[in-house]
Protein 1
Amino acid sequence: MKAVIFGLFALTISQLLIAQVADDQPITAEKAEKYSLTIMANGLYLDQQGQETVDIIEGDIAYLAVLVETPAGQSVLGATPKFTIEGTTRMLVPGEISPEMSTDESGILEFEIIGGAKGLNQLTVTYGNNSATLLLNILSSDIKGFSPLPTLEGGLNWAALMEAELEYAEDHVQVIFPPHIAQQAGKQVKLTGYMLPLDADIKQQHFLLTSAPPSCYFHIPGGAAGVVEIFSETSVEASWVAIQLEGRLKLIETSESGIIYQLENATLIE
């Protein structure tokens, strides 16, 4: 089970992007004098002003990468670009989502972003004196046809859960929880979200609750901090409608599965 859950977060950019990189041997970052940066994203297009843009649904994850090359097209190994974002979209920077902190032999460094509120955001990647920008067109989650998350008085807020700091090692995830979430460990809490079933039964006792409508079983919206593993003694009917649950919150500081939140003895709030 752990291997399956961890695999949900292990989707690599190579499955989403086809990058043309130089055939020459890479040059190390300290030996390169000038750089060329390219942001790569699935579904990238030019807007009416000719600016590179990508569409993201609120709360959804976009898998991106930056390619660092010399002007001659030679891959740069070991470059550590800096990322800044204007708007409500959240960054999952390298080191938070994987052990890789710098570009590989192909000059590529992968990263992820989680769509914020509906609107236009901008991502800027810099290294040396060069930079690249990408417009993030955040679309309303209504586009998926899901019901919006109801306001749950006194319930946990997904934005607060996503403040957890994650560091991915080779075989586990190390987590530092924000104080206001750490204080909830072992307590009865309420949470609303979308069900992601873990088997084919219409009735579920063990499933995932996600912060945004799920796209598929291999694409968890919100990342590791945007999903809670649910254990319920009573069956909950699978549905596309947002559900509200109450249960005992468990925090996992060192996770081998990629799951950092669990809700035990969960019951459905009608």
Protein 2
Amino acid sequence: MTDSFLKRPRVLKVSEVNGYIKGLLSYDGVLSSMWVSGEISNYKRHYSGHLYFDIKDSASKLKCVMFKSNAEKLVFEPENGMKVLIRGGISVFERDGMYQLYAEDMRVDGIGDLHTAFEQLKKKLSSEGLFDERYKKPIPFMPRKIGVITSDTGSVIKDIVNVMSRRYYPIELKLLPCQVQGEGAGARLASAVRFFNRRKCCDVLILARGGGSLEDLWPFNEEVLARAIADSEIPIISAVGHETDFTICDFTADLRAPTPSAAAELAVPELSQIKSRLSQLSQRVNKIPYLNLEVKKNQLKNISSQTFFSKPTAFLEDRKLELDSLLSDLIYFAEDTGRNIKNKNSLMAARLDALSPLKILSRGYSAVVDSDGSVVKSVKNTDIGDLLHLHLNDGVLDCSVEKKEVKNVGR
């Protein structure tokens, strides 16, 4: 045999094979970084924060994982059946010998990520009742102190001040400058809402900013701000963007204004409205004495028109007839009751007379009593020579027993 047959071939461990494949994939220009489209299935968010799922098309399926650090950057929640675009690279999980796509970024395929996130949060909060009208607080008609949460550098605060200054008496305006755009803005806005509620320093709050893209307005679509608005004890007017812009804040707030200027108009009534309201109240107050007098006059008229006042004797005659009728009924009732009692007594007397021992004796019967006074009911209760007393209808006979004869009378 030659040396080539005797030489042992190289043997690789399983881990070496998986490691070798992983190295090949990591150096592949296409598989190391690419975009993949597909539909999510078997989605699971692990308690660690990592996302595990598959993406599939009509012919195949690919396992995916997105680690927590990348998952936290998503503005929407992935769902089964959602079509997505995923950026990442293919690698091997050496322990299981399984290749999968390690996702670094994910976007909704077809519609924007922010739009999807908006609809998801809107559906979630609506199901919890945060948008229900029954929880909306009324905006006070004449607030004395108004809080405004917005940027202090834009035109929004100027528009609000201008509107309020020309509508009615001086108001104490409290501005809390706040970031209204960019990362962290939602949390800062929520903190501002909670600040006003802790201080209880205003009657109504205006949450405002000017128009912009969906990305610019996104802080007003964040859950943290929506919940702060829902928890607020102070009524809140949401005035975000232009008239056609809608945010989660608009649905959660107690009142939605199409623009910041409109919010100021809704919060502060015009002086003419107040004067008109006061005039109406003054007229009502002035009419009250006349209205009361008119009511009393009508009441007196109704009373005086009754028969009692127009013909008092007729009232008395009617009462007299009623009294006579009641007296007749009473007499009849008394006589009828007496007759019934008499008849019942007669019936009872007849029954008692029929059952009387004297009545029985008058028909020829007698009652036999021994010397002790006991009634003799049987021959067996006597002996020859006993002295007996026979009670008759008209007297008593004393007799002695000379003979007795026992008869069989039934059983």
Protein 3
Amino acid sequence: MNTHLLALQLMAAQGCLGAFDTIYHHELTEALPQRATARRELAIHAVRATIYGVLFVGLSAWVWQGAWAWILLALFGVEIVLTLWDFVVEDQTRLLPATERVTHTVLAINGGAFIALLMLGMPAATAAPTGFAYAPHGWLSVFLALCGVGVFVSGVRDAFASRALPADAAKGVRFEGPPQTVLVTGATGFVGHSLVPALLASGHRVIVLSREPRKAAWEFGGAVRAVASMAELSPQEGIDVVINLAGARILGWRWSERRKAVLRGSRAGLTEGVVDWIARAARKPRLMINASAVGYYGIQPQGSGQVLNEASPPQAIFMSQLCQEWEAVASRAREHGVPVALARFGLVFGRGGALPSMLLPFRLGFGGRMGTGQQRSSWIHIADLLGAMAHVWRLGANADGAWNFTAPEQPTQQAFAQAAAAELHRPSVVPTPAWPVRLLLGEQSALLLEGAAIAPARLLASGFSFRFPTVREALADLV
């Protein structure tokens, strides 16, 4: 078999493996663009992706000859150095899951094989006149070119993420009072990554419940105690406050019956274990803060003009039922004398989470409204969310009941698009039709195409002051 063709086939396999690694590990399970500690790793990925983009497109249908062959060798050399540097940075900043280690190993073996095969043709290529020999390979060339475009877009995404300043949402937020012991579930998520440092800076002891305790302890520099299950905590353990943030990511995989079961288990199922521990505890916590979501209220007809508050009823749709089940389990802690603050989060804006993905089309100049653009959005800046949590913390027993953790302004999606475009100095002229979103996400598309205006009535009534009450102020801080 032609060694050059075999090399290109291995390169195509490299593209598939790389796409899996980027989407499954970097974006979904590890969420690197949300981690301040991954800034250097993302910068390396951005440079390496640019090189891979050039290699995929450049080799898809051309043979590099003469001086260009030497440039090709230099690009491979830089890519190898970047890969080795990436390994070192990863080892210093995070614990890789087993699947990512295996994927990286296969990528290294496959990459070495296709580079070795290309090297076999280098003597002839370097001896030829300088230029590019057109040598297409049908659909293989098309696929390699598409891989090049995809990896280049991924590099742009990582470059923007790496340029974001380290998360400073915890700055200025104080959880007042004498040192206390706090149990935090979901601590390695987007909100938890800002909450835990704020608790530690306020002088409190933090216990983290995580499926990967070693990894969780690593991420917080060994400053927390990490446990894998509530069974590791003795009933004699003195826990003063429970903050329950746990829950699998709701936006992503389609809501099949299996996925719905995962979402329920990661919320109601895990919370049930926490409440069962509270029932056994010799000394009960003084407060439980349980994260929920404004999905509790369901969706509103567009243009209704109605603004909902904590007294508004839920709906008989999955996103609402999921929150109802979650809150019902958490509320059982009241049977044991523990006040339960049900914190219904709006969409959290920060330098991680969903916002970077929402802004990427605008950064690239392709942003615009989604669907009709008239759906209302209930959101909150991460700094205000932490501040609201500290506010509820101070209220103690008086914090029992539901709280809407949302900003006072509930803009339409089109108003958000215009604000994002204005802050980024980009146009807002490319709409996203509703039908492909519905086709791709099914029932889950209601999270993007429908909405509800949810007011933080209780926070405002109890004297909480928002640092970022409008979406323009929030984006001005975060962009």
